[in-house]
Design goal:
heterodimer; A: 708 residues; 5 domains; B: 270 residues; alpha/beta; 43% helix; elongated
């Protein structure tokens, strides 16, 4: 039973003094105590809990929360205080102390924002659905990104991070959707290809004309949306009503009608705009119309046009090279010619379906090339002749139209960024909550080392490998002939003879008279997570490498799917997963060299590695999934990741993995491991090996025991 | 054995099944049939492979025996086996043997699902020998010229485990099926469900949208079969958006984000 009496002031002071380490910080706890003492017991407990949790992150924040939060609790719900406190810590994690203190001092703004957050739609949460939605509509594969203003550069739709114009979350989401559709319609129904044709992208056009054109164009697009997506158009009407948009001025009504006709094009909109220039005031575009950002469009379009031209021409050349023999037989020495066959097709962009012909034979285009051709049609309303000339040898640098590959080490030169990194939460046991996107994880490749280590290992353990192969082979899938089955392919003669004898004797005859082939299936996927921390330097590292080689030899004869990754870290910003073998790679000389190339790195932050590899394992379709860690010590990193913090985060990551149906297991050579491993892996899911030299012998053996 | 041909009576297709050719597949099939060549139907799920077989069986007036393949299908499931009846063993023909004896069409649906070793029994049937060895009986059945073997498979499942062996696939005349063109597909949906033209066209448009999503979240787009299902629901008075949700979206994916995206697409259209 909890006490119901409020805690008295001296007692409160003593606890707060300890929590906020007054001895060192010389802060006075008089103010918070005077506030806390006025609360009931349950509120006091609530506040003390949160003060403790925040103070574990930063003492000053704890103190401020004690003052402001307690005051706020008098006229505010607990859950708002909770989310505020979490937000404070989150801001501290991401931006530091000063912005976090700002959040504390502007509690009122937070409450307002909270309202926006509660009722608004947040792009980050909705972008998955919106992206799927826009990919389902036809045209280019568009991307979605956050930006202060709403526009598109023809490849990416830029949307505001929070949409809160409408009263409820659902309606705000619909507003997002309508915005996405308008921006998509601009790219899909020729707005930008017209602007390019009339030269608006290359030289400045008078702003009034552009504004008028955009207003007209929006009306035209609305007409298209009404025809193509009637359901969405109904939502649009509702939104316009709710936003209390003024009805179109009288003069515009006629224009709207004209532009809503099925055959209206953007050229018509431009013509109308020129006619009415100076005579008609453009109405102000609504938020969901977005705005024209011609500069962005120009940059994006120019780069794309060059890239796609190169891509199509190089693809044509590749096709020519592939079909060279065949074409030569058909044409003799005459050069084959490409041409475009155009067909009216209203379901395609610009109403045009273009089929590329090679000497009058239709060419089957690979999907990427077909996408590029569609994209060109969207820019030009045509496929220009020069696109059909195959590229000459070495005319283009292939890197020009391919996505550049990123080097994970690059982030450390120049300004640090988190592009391309996987972000994982980390558990803070004092805060009793996750630190959001705390670890930046990057996948790196292990540099293969080709020397005679692998061969030496194989020689050293010849006998053992033979033995392992034999025992592992015995575990393989097998067809077994089951006898005396009620159903089956063949007749079990022995059973039949007995049964006949039984029936002669007058006893009941069994129905188990058949033989059946039965296949016992091993459907196991396993990831080995290898500790590559600095402490493995020396023979632990050597033992790890040897064990992996023996293990691979054994697993190859068994046929289980397996992958191997190393991990190491240097603070949360530099968490690294080293790729040694993916599931779909074969165990060959390169993989052997990579195992050989495993080198000790920095520290042992385990949570991120478990979370990342859990994700890898989850993507594999298998009945049993296992995550086996080879380690030499406790979780530990250069920053706060030591002691209880590291152990608790690792434990949390393992709990998450188990919830995803993964069986974690740990093999370690740390003799103290018995103190903490049961807490992490459970009493039976680890093995401590006392002698490093025994590691190679043991690892395969443990795996065999685990999976039979 | 004398009961075999009698039994097969029920495998004859009396009524003309509705089938809309998308190309020259009927001519090719007939030519292959005349020459005793086996046929392989390739194509995504629900695009009309099975319906095509029914139509051809009706057209050629042969019984059609369909075997849906699965990973437990053994060679004896196809060829036949001994059963024990009243203290004696009796041989019972499997569907393939029945079809061969009766000169029918044997259609092995989703053939890659069967184990690779099972498929080897069809090899002697699928080349110029055209015989079915009955290993356990120690005899051979020579296929009459009316017999035809057809198999189907979906190349979309890009799995190493689910691929057709070269030695199997190189015995067949391949017919490639794909979703029909929009106008044709709308006509099919209309015919099968009795829906009006406008709604049928919109359903087909919706299918096109889900097919755009193939590779970026969906494994497959909506098949013609799913469209017909949705159309039937709509024709019986269910709200179009609800029909698309139940008959199409939920059938395509379990991923909640993808589901919402697909549902948003359908509610934009209707």
């Amino acid at each position: 039973m909890a006490d119901t009496q409020p805690i008295a002031a001296p007692e409160l002071e003593a606890v707060l003094d300890e929590l906020l380490e007054v001895e060192f910080t010389f802060r006075s706890t008089e103010e918070p105590v005077s506030l806390l003492v006025q609360l009931g017991r349950s509120d006091q407990d609530f506040m003390m809990d949160w003060i403790r949790r925040v103070a574990s992150t930063h003492l000053e924040l704890g103190y401020q929360v004690a003052c402001h939060g307690t005051r706020a609790l008098q006229n505010m719900d607990r859950h708002i205080i909770e989310s505020w406190a979490l937000h404070v810590m989150d801001v501290y994690d991401r931006f530091g102390l000063r912005p976090a203190l700002d959040v504390i001092n502007t509690l009122d703004t937070f409450i307002q924002d909270q309202h926006r957050r509660l009722h608004g739609a947040i792009l980050q949460e909705q972008s998955g659905v919106l992206l799927g939605f826009v990919h389902g509509l036809s045209g280019r594969k568009l991307k979605i990104a956050e930006s202060a203003s709403t526009y598109t550069d023809t490849e990416t739709l830029y949307l505001p991070p929070i949409q809160a114009e409408m009263p409820s979350e659902l309606e705000n989401f619909q507003l997002y959707k309508v915005t996405v559709v308008f921006l998509w319609a601009q790219t899909r129904f020729g707005t930008f290809s017209l602007l390019r044709r009339v030269g608006a992208l290359s030289e400045p056009v008078s702003t009034p004309l552009l504004e008028l054109f955009f207003a007209m164009e929006c009306l035209r697009l609305e007409g298209i949306i009404a025809r193509e997506l009637p359901g969405l158009h109904r939502e649009l009407d509702k939104i316009q009503l709710a936003l209390a948009e003024h009805a179109l001025p009288q003069a515009w009504q006629a224009i709207k009608k004209q532009l809503a006709a099925a055959n209206a094009t953007s050229a018509d909109a431009m013509k109308l705009a020129q006619e009415h220039l100076g005579r008609l005031e453009p109405y102000s575009p609504k938020s969901f119309h977005g705005e024209l950002n011609l500069e962005a469009v120009r940059d994006c379009m120019e780069a794309r046009i060059e890239r796609e031209k190169a891509y199509i021409r190089v693809s044509l050349k590749e096709i020519l090279d592939e079909q060279q023999e065949k074409l030569k037989r058909r044409n003799g020495d005459e050069e084959p010619k490409f041409s475009a066959q155009k067909q009216q097709d209203d379901s395609k962009p610009e109403g045009l379906d273009i089929q590329i012909l090679i000497d009058d034979q239709p060419l089957l285009m690979p999907p990427e090339m077909a996408n590029a051709v569609t994209s060109v049609i969207m820019d030009f309303s045509d496929l220009p002749e020069e696109y059909l000339v195959p590229a000459g040898d070495g005319e283009y640098d292939p890197n020009f139209f391919k996505e550049p590959e990123t080097d994970p080490d690059e982030v450390w030169s120049g300004t640090y960024h988190e592009e391309g990194a996987y972000l994982y939460d980390e558990w803070d046991f004092q805060r009793k909550h996750y630190r959001k996107n705390w670890c930046a994880v990057r996948e790196k490749n292990v540099k293969p080392v080709y020397d005679d280590f692998v061969q030496q290992t194989l020689n050293k353990y010849t006998g053992l490998i033979k033995h392992l192969r034999k025992t592992f082979e015995a575990m393989r899938d097998e067809d077994r002939l089951l006898k005396r089955q009620p159903h089956g392919d063949g007749v079990d003669i022995d059973a039949l003879v007995e049964a006949l004898a039984d029936s002669r004797r007058g006893t009941e005859m069994t129905d188990r008279l058949f033989t059946r082939m039965h296949r016992t299936e091993r459907n196991i996927a396993v990831v080995f997570m290898v500790d590559m921390s600095g402490s493995t330097k020396g023979w632990i590292n050597e033992a790890e490498r040897e064990s992996l080689i023996l293990l691979c030899e054994a697993l190859e004869s068994l046929g289980d799917r397996y992958a191997i990754y190393g991990f190491s870290s240097l603070t949360r910003k530099r968490c690294e997963i080293f790729h040694i073998k993916h599931f779909d790679e074969n165990y060959d000389a390169e993989i052997k060299a990579r195992i050989n190339g495993i080198q000790p790195q920095d520290y042992t932050r385990m949570g991120f590695a478990i979370r990342h590899l859990t994700k890898v394992l989850k993507a594999v379709d298998a009945k049993t999934r296992m995550l086996i860690t080879l380690s030499d010590g406790k979780p530990d990193d250069y920053d706060i990741y030591r002691g209880v913090y590291g152990i608790e985060d690792t434990r949390r990551a393992l709990i998450e993995a188990r919830q995803d149906g993964i069986h974690p297991y740990c093999i370690t050579i740390d003799e103290e491991a018995k103190d903490y491993l049961p807490h992490l892996y459970g009493p039976a899911a680890f093995t401590v090996i006392n002698e490093v030299r025994a590691l190679p012998l043991k690892v395969s053996d443990i795996y065999r025991r685990l999976t039979t | 054995m004398e009961s075999t041909s009698k039994l097969l009576n029920e495998y004859f297709i009396e009524q003309e099944p509705y089938y809309q050719p998308t190309g020259n597949e009927i001519t090719i099939f007939e030519a292959a049939y005349k020459n005793g060549l086996p046929v392989l139907l390739k194509g995504p799920t629900g695009c009309g492979k099975t319906r095509f077989m029914e139509y051809m069986a009706w057209r050629l007036k042969r019984p059609l025996i369909t075997v849906s393949c699965h990973d437990d299908l053994t060679a004896s499931d196809l060829v036949g086996r001994y059963l024990v009846k009243g203290g004696e063993t009796v041989w019972i023909d499997g569907p393939l043997a029945q079809a061969v004896r009766a000169g029918g069409i044997c259609y092995l649906d989703e053939v890659v699902e069967a184990r690779k070793d099972t498929m080897v029994v069809i090899h002697p049937l699928a080349d110029d020998r055209r015989v079915l060895p009955m290993e356990k009986l120690g005899s051979l059945i020579v296929a009459p010229k009316e017999f035809c073997l057809a198999i189907s498979y979906n190349p979309g499942y890009q799995s190493v485990l689910k691929d057709l062996k070269q030695s199997t696939r190189q015995r067949f005349i391949a017919l490639e099926f794909d979703y029909p063109t929009a106008a044709l597909e709308a006509a099919i949906v209309q015919q099968e469900s009795g829906l009006d033209q406008d709604v049928a066209a919109r359903l087909v448009k919706f299918a096109g949208m889900t097919r755009n999503l193939k590779g970026s979240g969906l494994e497959e787009g909506a098949s013609t079969r799913l469209l017909v299902h949705a159309a039937k629901l709509i024709a019986s008075g269910v709200d179009p958006i609800e029909s698309c949700r139940g008959a199409i979206a939920q059938a395509l994916t379990d991923d909640s984000e993808m589901l919402s995206a697909v549902n948003e697409l359908s509610s934009s259209l209707f």
